[in-house]
Structure to design on (300 residues):
């Protein structure tokens, strides 16, 4: 079937089972739907070779861990083979297909929530559809814990379920979990990450200083061009934009929570003059610093 010919609003599914499987369905409360990440179904399946699932749409996100075996995974724009030990993350709001290429044991969970798509998009960009983690134990244990709660008939605590899902997704995103972690392989990627993190820790402690790109690059032990590129890749900010955001974050906190004068805030946060600070603050926040302080304190 040509997947480009599928009408993606159609929710038809093509499921071919025949292995051993155990699964549980959860109906989250309205509070959970509006607040947390939440599981919808979770299960532990044994797939015999050739068993498959093909859907045009099943409103949720799916995470799977192959304990062993291998599976062909297909989305609307790519096809990949996942092997034992791999994680697979799918956007089931779109076409998806997976088929066992050999006997395979799979722990899986459909989940959703208001934060689900941003997590999915970050993981998809960083890791792709199928990926291995350098240290998979914690993510696997948290995923297994969700399954065990339903399997054992334990009391359901929706905030904790949301925490477990968040733990899994954050663990997947952790740079230390890159299977080809640069520090481990001896290339420069691990050193670059350490350098950027060193700078991120340095900036909040030295906001009263100029914090030029050259100075920050030296702290990271990089040339300026390499540093700017590595910093943007890791944080999403240029070094200058990150410094300015840190200055404003500190200034807004001081305005709302301290009796500090504008002059003292400017000095502590690295603004050259109060006029520069007031002009930049109003442009960014839509109100003057004093009006912001007045509103923040009026809410208390």
């Amino acid at each position: 079937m040509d997947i480009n010919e599928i009408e993606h609003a159609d929710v038809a599914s093509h499921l071919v089972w025949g292995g051993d499987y155990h699964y549980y369905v959860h109906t989250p409360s309205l509070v959970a739907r509006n607040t947390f990440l939440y599981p919808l179904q979770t299960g532990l399946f044994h797939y015999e070779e050739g068993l498959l699932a093909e859907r045009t749409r099943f409103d949720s996100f799916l995470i799977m861990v192959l304990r062993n075996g291998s599976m062909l995974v297909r989305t609307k724009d790519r096809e990949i083979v996942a092997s034992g030990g791999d994680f697979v993350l799918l956007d089931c709001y779109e076409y998806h297909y997976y088929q066992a290429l050999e006997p395979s044991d799979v722990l899986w969970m459909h989940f959703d929530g208001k934060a689900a798509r941003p997590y999915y998009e970050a993981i998809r960009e960083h890791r792709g559809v199928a990926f291995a983690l350098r240290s998979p134990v914690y993510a696997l244990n948290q995923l297994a814990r969700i399954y065990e709660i339903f399997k054992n008939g334990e009391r359901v605590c929706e905030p904790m379920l949301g925490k477990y899902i968040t733990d899994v997704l954050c663990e997947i995103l952790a740079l230390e979990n890159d299977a080809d972690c640069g520090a481990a392989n001896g290339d420069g990627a691990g050193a670059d990450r350490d350098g950027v993190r060193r700078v991120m820790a340095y900036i909040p402690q030295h906001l009263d200083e100029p914090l030029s790109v050259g100075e920050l690059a030296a702290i990271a032990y990089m040339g300026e061009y390499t540093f700017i590129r590595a910093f943007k890749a890791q944080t999403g900010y240029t070094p200058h934009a990150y410094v300015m955001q840190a200055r404003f974050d500190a200034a807004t906190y001081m305005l709302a929570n301290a009796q500090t004068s504008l002059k003292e805030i400017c000095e502590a946060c690295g603004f050259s003059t109060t006029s520069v600070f007031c002009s930049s603050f109003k442009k960014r926040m839509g109100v003057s610093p004093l009006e912001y302080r007045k509103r923040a304190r009026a809410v208390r």
